[in-house]
Amino acid sequence: MTASVDQVMVSVQEGSLPKVLDDLREAGLVVDTVLEALGVVTGTVEVRAIPSLLSVPGVLDVERQWRVQLPPY
Amino acid sequence: MTEPAEVETTGRFLVLLQEDAVEEGLAELGAIAGFDPNSGDLDPQAVQVFPELGVAVVSADPNLLAELNGAAERPGPVQIVEPERVVHLFDAAPAHDPAAQADESVLTWGLQAVGADVSTATGKGVRIAVLDTGFEQNHPDFAGRTITTKSFITGEDVQDGHGHGTHCIGTSAGPRKPATPPGYGIAYEAEIYAGKVLSNAGSGSDGGILAGIDWAISNGCAVISMSLGADVPAGTPYSQVYETVAQRALAKGTLIVAAAGNASSRPARIAPVGHPARCPSIIAVAAIDVNRAIAPFSSGSADKIGQIDVAGPGVDVYSSFKLPEKYARLRGTSMATPHAAGVAVLIAEKTGARGFELWARLALSALRLPLPSTDVGGGIVQAP
C-alpha cells in the first residue's frame, strides 16, 4: 500500500516567505501554491510527515484541506 | 419548543472517510459499530460503503453517536459523522407562498428588506469578490459592467456551468433596473471580481478557496462574498489557518462574509455554523424569510465556536442565473450572504470604512429582530 498523502494548508509567520519554503520542501511538502498576501502555502504531504512540517521555524499551523459541496437545488 | 421533535433522519449515519484511507476508516468504524469490514458479506442493512465517495452509511445505536463523533474529531481516517437525512424535493408543498406577501414589481423583497431601495449608495469605486461557481459571461443584465474573472478550478474556465455563482453575483452587485423587473442587485455600481473556486458540479476545496481569497486581497477587494462551506459536527474547532487568513485580510482592508450553512431542520434541530464561517474573524450570515422568520434550514449558534453575526434574506430570492434560464428563485444561506456582502460594499463606499471598521459598521447597523441572537446575530443587515 502506498503512503497516505494529504492535501494541506500551512500558515506561516508574516515576513517568513519565501525563506520558509525551502524548509517546508525539505520537510516533505510538495508545494502547490504560495499565497503571499495570506502568508499561506498549500500543497501535498505524506500524513506521517505533518509533524515535521509543524516543527519548521516560521510555521503557525498545518491543517488538512476540507472539501466543500453546494447542496442540490 | 414544546412540540415533539420531528427529526427528519433515518436512524443511520453518514460517515465521511479520508479519501485515501477508506480501509483504515472502515476498520475504525467496525470497531465502534460492531461489524467486521473484512467478513466479505456485510449486511447492507448494517453498513453500506461507497469507496468512490469515501463514504459509509452505518446503522448504529443512537448511543454510539458520541463515540462516532469522537472518532471524527480525532485526527484519523474518520472525518465527519452526521445523521442520514431524509431529503425532499425543494418546495414540493409550500404551506403558503411567501412571495405573495411582497410587492416585487420593482425590486425583490430582499432588496427592500435590507433598505437598498431607500439608500443613495451604489457601491461605485468599491471592489467586491464573489468566490463561487463562476459567472455567466453572456448574461445581458451585466453588459457594460466592469467584471474581472479568474478560475481556480483546474480544467474549467470562469463560465458558470452551475448557476449558483451568477445568482450570488446578481444579488450582491447586479442591476437595479434590468430590462425585465424586478431589480435584484444591491451594490449595482460596484466593481465585480468573479473568482471560480467551486466547479460546475458545485464542489471545491480549501486550496482553491484560499487562492481566491489571496487573489481578492491582492486586487484590493473591500469585501469577499463566500456562499460556500462544509457542515461540521457541533464542537468542531474552527480552522486556525482560515482564522489567521481572515485576520490578515481584515488588516489589509478586506472583509470576508460567509454563509452559515443550511444544515438545520427547525424546529427539531439547529445545526452548528459550518466551515469556514465558524471562524471568529469571518462574518457568518443566517437566512430569514419575507416574514422576518428564521429559515428552517439556517444553521445557528449551536456551540460556543461558530457564532451567527448577522442575517439576510435567504428564502425565495430572485436573481440572475446561468443561461438559458437567465433567472432563478433560490433559497439558502448562500442567498443571504450576498445580501450582507452587498450591503457591506454600500457601507464601504459611503463611510470609507475597511477591515474591522467595516465589520463593526455592518454588524452594528443591522436591524434588530425579535429572534434569538443565536439564530440571527445582530439582525438583518441594513444599507446605509
SSE layout:
The complex is a heterodimer of chains A (73) and B (384).
Chain A: E1 5-12, H1 19-26, E2 30-35, E3 40-46, H2 50-54, E4 59-64, E5 67-69
Antiparallel strand pairs in A: 1-3, 1-4, 2-3
Chain B: E1 9-17, H1 22-33, E2 47-50, E3 55-59, H2 65-73, E4 78-85, H3 109-113, E5 127-132, E6 147-151, H4 164-173, E7 191-196, E8 203-205, H5 206-218, E9 223-226, H6 240-251, E10 255-259, E11 283-288, E12 310-313, E13 317-320, E14 327-330, H7 333-351, H8 355-364, H9 373-376
Parallel strand pairs in B: 5-7, 5-9, 6-7, 9-10, 10-11, 11-12
Antiparallel strand pairs in B: 1-3, 1-4, 2-3, 13-14
Helix pairs in contact in B: 4-7, 7-8
| pLDDT < 50 runs, ≥5 residues of chain B | 1-7, 85-97
Order of helices and strands of chain A: EHEEHEE
Determine the mean pLDDT of chain B. Answer: 88
Determine the mean pLDDT of chain A: 91
Alpha plus pi helix count of chain A = 2
What is the global morphology of chain A? globular
CATH class of the largest domain in chain B: Alpha Beta
Assembly annotation? heterodimer
| Alpha carbon gap, first and last residue of chain B | 36 Å
Which strand order do you get reading across the main beta sheet of chain B? 6-7-5-9-10-11-12
CATH architecture of the largest domain in chain B: 3-Layer(aba) Sandwich
Unreliable stretches of chain A? none
- Number of discrete domains of chain B: 2
- Residues in β-strands, percent of chain B: 15-25%
User: What fraction of residues of chain A sit in β-strands?
Assistant: 35-45%
